[in-house]
Amino acid sequence: QVQLVESGGGVVRPGRSLRLSCTASGFTFSSYGMHWVRQVPGKGLEWVAVIWHDGSKKYYGDSVKGRFTISRDNSKNTLYLEMNSLRAEDTAVYYCARSGCSKTSCYTRHFDLWGRGTLVTVSS
Amino acid sequence: DIVMTQSPDSLAVSLGERATINCKSSQSVLYSANNKNYLAWYQQKPGQPPKLLIYWASTRESGVPERFSGGGSGTDFTLTISSLQAEDVAVYYCQQYDTAPVTFGQGTRLEIK
């Protein structure tokens, strides 16, 4: 079954860290770019980060740059998001999503598979 | 960043009638080298993740009903549902993936009149 399953969400205090995971199954994980997208409950979608299929390139949204780190382990079919210095405004459902890759970019493609998300709440 | 603006913010349509959602980008998402518009549409139902409906502005994703269609080019795009069904109640988002960072429209909530 082709799917993505996120885990690792929870309640964390401001300034602390949290690591999210996204486990892929049913497809060749190492062939796809992978993204994190977040959504404040009841609000819109905000792209967070992308990692190339081979891990060679990573890009971040301005709101998380310098605080969050995206990584992947293709041997474990798993994507990660290490979140440091968390703020109240990071509270959201975090989705992982996959995109295809062109010859030069894993960025310029639509997101054809999404996980169900994991809720991160940053609160004192 | 490319700003994606959807209209209307919410829409109520009778069952069986046509629903049209608009999406405007602050700059063109048409890549001239391959003549593709880097624009996708997603559907999100309550408690669910977004689901891809349309990509390259007008290509329907496998399994998506034919009543969903996408059109437009450059900076102006539309998502049309030709005959609204009850299961189409959702929030719809457009997304550009032409220029970093990927950006989404604010969403359009579609309801039954």
Would you mind describing this structure in some detail?
The complex is a heterodimer of chains A (124) and B (113). Chain A is mainly beta and 124 residues long. In chain A, 0% of the residues lie in helices and 50% in strands. The mean pLDDT of chain A is 96. Chain B has 113 residues and is mostly beta strands. Chain B has strands spanning 4-7, 10-13, 19-25, 30-31, 36-37, 39-44, 51-55, 59-60, 68-73, 76-81, 90-96, 103-104, 108-112. In chain B, strands 2, 6, 7, 8, 11, 12 and 13 form a seven-stranded mixed sheet that branches. A four-stranded antiparallel sheet of chain B has the order 1-3-10-9, with no helix packed on it. The termini of chain B are far apart. Classes of the chains: A mainly beta (124), B mainly beta (113). At the A-B interface, β5 and β10 of A face β7 and β12 of B.
Number of E-state strands of chain B: 13
Fraction of residues in β-strands of chain B: over 45%
Judged by helices, strands and strand pairing, the structural class of chain A is mainly beta
Return the average pLDDT of chain A rounded to an integer. Answer: 96
Order of helices and strands of chain A: EEEEEEEEEEE
Biggest β-sheet of chain B: count, sense, barrel?
Answer: 7 strands, mixed
Amino- and carboxy-terminal Cα gap of chain B: 36 Å
N to C succession of SSEs of chain B: EEEEEEEEEEEEE
What's the short story on this structure?
The complex is a heterodimer of chains A (124) and B (113). With 124 residues, chain A is mainly β. Chain A has strands at residues 3-7, 10-12, 18-25, 33-39, 45-51, 58-60, 68-73, 78-83, 92-99, 111-114, 118-122.
